[in-house]
Amino acid sequence: xxxxxxxxxxxxxxxxxxxxxxxxxxxxxxxxxxxxxxxxxxxxxxxxxxxxxxxxxxxxxxxxxxxxxxxxxxxxxxxxxxxxxxxxxxxxxxxxxxxxxxxxxxxxxxxxxxxxxxxxxxxxxxxxxxxxxxxxxxxxxxxxxxxxxxxxxxxxxxxxxxxxxxxxxxxxxxxxxxxxxxxxxxxxxxxxxxxxxxxxxxxxxxxxxxxxxxxxxxxxxxxxxxxxxxxxxxxxxxxxxxxxxxxxxxxxxxxxxxxxxxxxxxxxxxxxxxxxxxxxxxxxxxxxxxxxxxxxxxxxxxxxxxxxxxxxxxxxxxxxxxxxxxxxxxxxxxxxxxxxxxxxxxxxxxxxxxxxxxxxxxxxxxxxxxxxxxxxxxxxxxxxxxxxxxxxxxxxxx
Length: 398
Hints:
Elements: E1 5-11, H1 32-40, H2 49-54, H3 56-64, E2 78-83, H4 91-98, H5 119-129, E3 134-138, H6 141-155, E4 159-162, E5 167-173, H7 174-193, E6 200-207, E7 214-215, E8 220-223, H8 231-237, E9 241-245, H9 248-251, E10 259-261, H10 266-279, E11 284-290, H11 292-298, H12 303-323, E12 328-333, E13 352-357, E14 364-370, H13 371-381
Parallel strand pairs: 1-11, 1-12, 2-14, 3-4, 5-6, 9-10, 9-11
Antiparallel strand pairs: 2-13, 4-5, 6-7, 6-8, 12-13
Helix pairs in contact: 1-12, 5-7, 10-12, 11-12
């Protein structure tokens, strides 16, 4: 019986700058963590001692050739900066490539005009799903709900919007419009737009009254299924128990997952992670996503809020590190950047940290690796063969 366990944690949007092709995406000079550190220098030092000792500063140095000594020294584990090869800078691209499946196509993006969706597409949705929308433009989700929530309640028409990501997002009042009705609508729209290579249809339920609308944790993503076997599929086929925490199940269309723990704020999801660290059986892969760095602070360009989220995660991480077993492998990474100091309110094309820790592991500075190497290393620890992409970058670790 395999005694080993892997905990693969994605800190959604926690980029470290330096992407080779950032300029191609209009993101030259972006650096999510680096710029947060610089922003906080005028207030107080960013306090992330556990991420620091795992090598966050080392990863930043590898990505940017700049030193960030004030966050603390690399003391345990192995650290690298990971490069993405898939096109785009969105959630499926990053997660799929981490899981060993670089995206083999170009995503469809909706124009930044109003309406951003074509009349032909809207007519098809009306014909097949029986629905007309309001909104129909690029927008921040919270902003468009504040602006159009009243009209939504008066007309009953859901709010449709997009962004620079390959997404069709639909917001509706959870109690008035109905949560299950919103989910069904998103499923129907997904059937229409997935063949166009639109990555996700996202249900964005909200509650409240005029002037006090707020989104709930019942978001649901309807994503295109990965085109090849991911690390979740491969692990499950090899008899490894697979547990998804956060929006992982949505991202991978539920495939290769035995248990999904989702639909909660990050604080409660970390409780679930702690429970798995304590109780998960040997021979388990736990794949977690913590989204609030991105959704609450990156898109809203809230540098201090983002700093606070990093510090909260770091405090929780301390307890998790103490409870790991001797044969466990912890991997902490990200899927893209979302620099809160940068222009606009969208993701930024960046390298990401790749921090590896197992008790008694030697300290290593690994240099630059590929996203797919992260998933391949996770499978290697579980004695499972990976696919065509990625390699075990810890094969010489004692």
